[in-house]
Amino acid sequence: MHDEFTIGIDLGGTRIKTGLVTEGKILDLKIIEAKASENLSNQLPHLEQIISGFKESADGRRLKGIGLAFPGIVNSDKNLVIDTSSKYPDAPQLNLTRWANQVFGVPFKMDNDARLACYGEWLYGAGKGTTDMVMITLGTGIGTSVITNNQLLKGKHYQAGILGGHIIIDYKNQSDLCSCGRYGCPEGIASMWMIDRKAKQDPLYPQSKLAEAQKINWETILEFSAAGDELATRLKQHCLDVWATAIINMVHAYDPERIVIGGGISHSEKELLTFFENELTKRGWCPSGIPELRVASYPDTAAVLGAGSLFD
Ligand SMILES: [Zn+2]
């Protein structure tokens, strides 16, 4: 309906994105800095202000509901946070349904952020038209989510499909402690926050170009690797191998027809997709052919779109 709109909120670790969403489009987007170590209740007044602003600018459209993407495990039937992995620590105690109802008089829905990014891409982006897809986001962390038979996969305890970044692939690793509290998972050995730490601990670091970089991320790894830097080249190959392994495991687990890759990889799309395709062909068990690989259509806003689309 043209005369209605929804609010989609993506509650990130460092930034909160709030979008005015209608018919699969984000018409307006506000981004505020957030400290995820602080309580979510501190952020609610800021969100209320943004949402009120959107209501005023909505051209007479009616606010239909508020959807929220949360970085943790979420009971999406009761709209309650089950586990926050230390982000927004008061979230499990909050009744956000009541908040949305009391402040704005509208319904509220929430789910895990990776799951809603997948939902946004599936409805309106790189996953459109598929019945079965996997999304994997390679960035500061590693997020995954799954659509199976035209539905978001949730499982008995709402964690199905979203822990692909924490499938243990190196059971001997007891040194790289992951954000999940375990060792040897893709996020714990090849996410950008860990690569930054690994680079700085490496004996080659003092003579590596990475030591001069303001920030170590995929872009700097690529740049210095291309310039022949030994440490950057080794870390690049390490990431590629771990990411390909994670993708193959997701394919074996969920049998998608398409894999959508999100995250900060836009400078190397072609190289990455070709590498993953080759690895899937070599190492995957795919007698019906390997799934199609695509880069996300909305690398920064898929979760906002997904959250806003929960009322469609
Ligand atoms: Zn982990």
**Can you summarize the main beta sheet?**
5 strands, mixed
Structural class: alpha/beta
Tell me what portion of residues adopts beta-strand conformation.
15-25%
Mean pLDDT score: 95
Number of strands: 12
Report the oligomer.
single chain
Are there runs of 5+ residues with pLDDT below 50, and where? none
CATH architecture of the largest domain: 2-Layer Sandwich
List the ligand species: zinc ion
How many separate domains? 2
Supply Rg: 20 Å
Tell me about this structure.
- There is one protein chain.
- With 312 residues, the chain is α/β, with parallel strands linked by helices.
- It folds into 2 domains: 127 residues, ATPase, nucleotide binding domain (Nucleotidyltransferase, domain 5, 2-Layer Sandwich), CATH 3.30.420.40; 168 residues, ATPase, nucleotide binding domain (Nucleotidyltransferase, domain 5, 2-Layer Sandwich), CATH 3.30.420.
- It has 9 helices and 12 strands.
- The strands form 3 sheets. A 5-stranded mixed sheet has the order 3-2-1-4-7. It has a 5-stranded mixed sheet with strand order 10-9-8-11-12, with helices on both faces. A two-stranded antiparallel ribbon has the order 5-6.
- It binds zinc ion.
- The site of zinc ion has 7 residues, from α4.
- Zinc ion binds next to α4.
What structural keywords apply?
Nucleotidyltransferase, domain 5; 2 domains; single chain; 312 residues; binds zinc ion; 34% helix; 9 helices; five-stranded mixed beta sheet; globular; alpha/beta
